[in-house]
Amino acid sequence: MNTNLKHWKEAATLILAAGHRLGADCLSARTPLGSSYGRSHLPHKSCFDYDVLLLKRSSKSGFMPNAYVFPGGMVDSSDFSSEWLDIFKSFRNLTNFGLRSVTQPLETRPPMFATDRLKLGSPIAGEVAFRICALRETFEESGVLLVVPKVEEKRLLKSIEDRCATDQVPHNNVSELCGSELAKWRALVNQNPSNFIRMCRELEVLPNIWALHEWGNWLTPTGRYGVTRFDTAFFICCLQEIPHTLHDEKEIVRFQWSTPSEVLQSYQARELWIAPPQFYELSRMCRLPLLYDIHNFSSQRATEGCEQWLPVVSLKDEHYISLLPGDKRYPLDTSGEAEVGASADPQLEDPQDDSALHRIVIVDPSTITLQITITPKYKHLLPVVEQTFPRDSKSQL
Fold first, then answer.
1. Rounded to whole angstroms, how far apart are CA atoms 365 and 221?
2. Using the 8-state DSSP alphabet, how is residue 145 labeled?
3. Do the Cβ atoms of 170 and 238 come closer than 8 Å?
4. What is the pTM of this model?
């Protein structure tokens, strides 16, 4: 945990996808959507054989009240505790406890991953600690506990060595604790995050950090969501089946498992609200409607690394334009302090224009469009770009 951060608090979030039976009326789900830069249509919900977990934040939340978000939250000092060395004792001789190495040069890695944590007093690398944070927060907020029993250590070590079992099929390492035992530990972890270490020790389990694949890194822009800003690592994990899920009745007031296209169309129909990062990432996932494909893509792509994204937001003709890295008008030096209106007067431009566009256009809280003509870095997915719905749209799922 980096207490020296000036502008943001470090955080981690988990895009959790879980399989369900494919709709009978889907004819072309096995063909990923085209990678053209033009407009396309969201796949129908029946094309997906997986759902994504979204949690509704309380109206009393200090950050994004009432928003539907992926599970996650702020890093705690215990996520970087040296006590994890004992929990992962069998993996201490492996780099980052056996996580796959990222080929991205250190000088271009997002600071939250590139920071030398030893200099900050922790022997736990950011690659590990942020995954622990995402797993802990997912357990706290939804009751989904992704762990590996210690009795499976030998099998896990071999699979890491062979890089087969952990990469070829979606995971099924969800805790099978009885409800009362799970509820007891969840309450304790909610009470004090350091109890997550105690739980792993007493139950003889390992946080399944190997099931989480690096997906992205979003930074909260200035002046959009209150005073608190977050530097957030996004991970993705695919499970074979939807696990038993609960909300925490505090920060989270409800949960739902839905396909990415269902969420986006519900958002456009003003049935729920999601923030631009969730909109962008769910639009990406619409490229791959099958669980096997999204799992295979995410596990292979993760070794490429990711780019740190600080949206630079400007108001133009009553539209908010959120510029992202790669856009021709994105400032060369944001220095972590890019203010609303600080960019070079971005215009609403024709997305057919072949100049470099990478932006989110926010017409109103429930109307977002993406303008993208760039090629994604680090072999990432290009979002499905959907036409703007009318303000009174009630799109049918």
1. 16
2. -
3. yes
4. 0.87
